[in-house]
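HUMAN: Forgive my ignorance: could you write out one protein's sequence and backbone structure tokens?

ASSISTANT:
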Amino acid sequence: MSGTIYLLQDDGTLAAMTEQPYANESRLQSLLADYPDLLAGEQMDEQSPRRWLLVSREVGIPLVEDGGNAMSLDHLFLDQDGIPTLVEVKRSSDTRIRREVVGQMLDYAAHAMAYWTDETIRSRYQERCLSEGLDADASLIEFLKSAVDDESGAAVEAYWDRVKTNLLAGRIRLVFVADQIPAELRRIVEFLNRFTNPVEVLAVEVPQFAGEGLRTLVPRVIGQTSETQTRKRSSSARGERWTEERFYAKMAEYGLDAEAQVARKIGAWAESRAARLRWGTGVVDGSFVPLPVTGDVEWSLFAVYTNGQVDVSFGNYVKYPPFDRQDMRLKLRDRLNDIEGVAIERNRIDKYPKIPLSILGTRDNLDQFLAAFDWFIEQAEGWYRREQ
């Protein structure tokens, strides 16, 4: 350890602060959990600084399906785009940080990708919030505030959908954290980050400086060149509105050819109902929403996503008559539940329940689904005529 920084104090004197080792590895781990900004998300992406949601510390990873947790990751974070970020912490004095930690992290990542689901991650996040006396959904909405306008349950569900999509696409981030990153690890990280896509591999150096009763932490990201930043940023097409061509290309990338056929039929039905299609601006997944108009109300019926899901927009129906009435939403739910494989619970009729496009793959099921929304539009139009 070596190095000194100087703090210019109000009285004009300099306070010398020298680089000091952490007392133990767990101290650095605790600091990361308490202060996730130490991961230096603004250095990882200057255009859209990464922000961090702690899922949990000491996250278990199984070696076999349905097996017990045989390995334990130091930290699991999510960023605002729902990208799982696996963090392993070592002190520079630990000889394993030179090469062994790379194999360890790749082992974690390989088994996590094989056996974790979005529900696994969501459950661990909820357990952590419960242990800290926090409301999981309220904490997530607070985290998302600067990223989304919607502060309802729809935003929460959409976020966990992005987590699921990222897992399916292999879009994760591996981060090594230490007080100093040795040259051997630096070279491996730079190599992996250059040649792995969509996986991002980085190291964060967090030295601490102490003196005059003060302590300063100075994080620095290692492994991300301007070339890799540009390449990986462009692959996400952040904030761009989706098009029909790009939407179905994404479904093809996921291997959802059958689901894409269903989505196209839904789009054709929307056109027959003179409903405008609004294409989404999702970072990871595309969407379209049929928007039929009755009177002065443009109804957001449901959202079809490139990950093969349909979100039924009960949470929007509550705003306008006649579907502001619970009995009308229950009638729609009953029509949808008549579809084989669909089971929307009663307590979801003011939220955004999901129906997999795969369920609508049979002609009868798709016909029932579209007939339910034909009925929906007829009820809305009938109410408008009566009120005129």
Summary: The chain has a mean pLDDT of 88. The first strand starts at residue 4 and ends at 8. The chain has two domains: 24-207+216-236, 244-387.
